[in-house]
Amino acid sequence: MTTLRAGAAQIEVNPPAVGTVLAMRAERSTGIAESLFARALVLDDGTARVVLVTNDYCGFDIPFHARLAKAISAATDIPVSHIMINSSHNHSAPLIGSWAPPNDGPQPWHDELIEKFARVARQAADDLRPARLRFRREATQIGMNRRLMHEGQMVMAPNPHGNHLPWIDVLSVAEPDGKRIAVLFSHAAHPVVVQSASTLIGGDYPGYTIKRLEAMARAGGSRSMFMFAQGAGGDINAFPLAGGIQAADTVARDLSYAVARAIKTPGGVLDGVPLRVGTREVALPLQEPPPRAVIEARIAATRDERRQVWLRGLLAMQDKGQDQRTMAFPMTAFALGDDFCLLGLPHETFSYYTLFAERVSPFESNMVLGYTNGVNGYVATRRDYLLSAAGGYEASRLGSAMNYTTRLAPKPESQALIEAGIRDLYAQVLSKKKEE
Question: How crowded is the C-beta side of 256, counted as CA atoms within 13 Å?
Fold first, then answer.
């Protein structure tokens, strides 16, 4: 019988309080409302060891993620393939990576951040204790699909009929005597409740939810580490948009109640089951860039520095062959027997892919994450990409993709590649059952 052990740790990872460029806007921070954290959960069954590191940042591109994972691996001896790094995609924190202006380039504090991620993972790995895990899914909803077709154009507005994921997944990790080690919870919705309403750094609704849960635990005479992982909700916004800090705390109240309900409700115990790991990466083909003459004309016609950087990036893509115009889509799965699978998807992946992964999963329970192991843009569906210029901010050829070094949105056939990759990943994890 497998003996599972777990360890958890957390660390503050604040950027400079004043002058840090906040995600997806040209504004710089004026202070800190609430500290940002990185939190690590290590699981070990005596044969395999994995770590999930969650954090309150907007995201890290794939090259920066590679630096984080390498440092974590060096500090813990956990293979890079056994590491997941999930960002909450909080818009009251920086984006870090090779994004276009107005985001800053490499900063001295980025190296400190890498060291802290490695340190917190090492602290968790050094504090392994016998553990029992329990999974529970609880109904709740704090947001809505944000893509609405209006007069032939996809716009960003609440769509009650669009895909959404109205639940929260909760994985409780405790010692055999019931003493909690950590509680991992996940929901899919952009943390944009504060957004442009404040220039203070903070955790938006995920951070305030954890703060409330910690207060509940203290009131009950116990202590526990709570950690939030963002789901695959690239097309879902938490509401109200830009409502401010108080609004984020109100949203957090509702989410914290759902987590508390899940913790208190008896659920399936994951005990004595082997830990299995799988990885799968697919290359998503990118759409064709506009003709060179069109790009050069646009560069000549604009004085906007940010737009010039974007357009020059398009010229660079024009010079690449189609086999080089791709975006990596790395996926990782941590499974506990046949009972539970934690699936990490990268980028701002649409909620459709969670629904697909749930539908084809061979596991009894699933927790599907987005924004994991690299964020280089949105990943929409075939139907969205076929809308072409009418596909809106997330899916049109020259929409949000211009913010990232890829500069171009994926092609419609990317959906089939991802679906096949998810199926292959599940099969890979199940195949390890025969090796035990």
Answer: 20
β-pair partners for 433: none
CA-CA distance, 24 to 95, in Å (whole number)? 8
Residue type, 337: G
Distance, in Å, from the CA atom of 344 to the CA atom of 425, rounded to the nearest integer, reads 11
What are 221's two structure tokens?
């005479």
The rounded distance, in Å, linking the Cα atoms of 260 and 382 is: 38
- CA proximity to 9, closest of 122, 109, 175, 98: 122
Q: Bridge partners of 403? A: none
Q: Mean pLDDT of residues grouped by 10 in the chain (436 residues)?
A: 92 97 87 99 98 98 96 99 99 80 78 98 99 97 98 98 98 96 99 97 99 96 95 98 98 98 87 94 94 90 85 85 88 97 99 99 98 97 97 92 89 99 98 75
Q: How far apart are CA 153 and CA 162, in angstroms?
A: 15
Task: Name the pTM for this structure.
Answer: 0.97
Q: How far apart are CA 418 and CA 57, in angstroms?
A: 25
Nearest to 186 by CA among 367, 371, 378: 367
Place of tokens 């090259």: 63
**Helix spans in 222-244 (H):** none
Q: Which residue has the tokens 């997330």?
A: 394
Q: Could you give the 3-state DSSP secondary structure of residue 19? A: strand
Q: What is the DSSP letter of 195?
A: G
Residue 133: closest CA among 71, 176, 191, 74: 176
C-alpha–C-alpha distance, residues 436 and 434, integer Å = 6
Output DSSP code: residue 220: T
Provide the pLDDT for residue 269: 82
Q: How much is the pLDDT for 309?
A: 83
Alpha helices in 302-351 (DSSP H): 305-318
Residue entry with tokens 């992982």: 229
Instruction: Please name the residue that has the structure tokens 């990872």.
Output: 13
Residue 15's contacts (CB-CB under 8 Å, 6 or more residues apart) are 29, 36, 93, 94, 109, 113, 201
CA distance linking residue 29 with residue 19, whole number of Å: 5
Helices (H), 11-103: 62-76
Contact 182, 226 (CB under 8 A): yes
How far is Cα 45 from Cα 2, in angstroms, rounded to an integer? Answer: 6
Distance CA 176, CA 124 (A): 18
Output the pLDDT for position 305. Answer: 81
Give the pLDDT confidence score for residue 100 in this predicted structure. 47
Nearest Cα to Cα of residue 410 among 394, 422, 421, 429? 394
Residue 102 is predicted with a pLDDT of 57
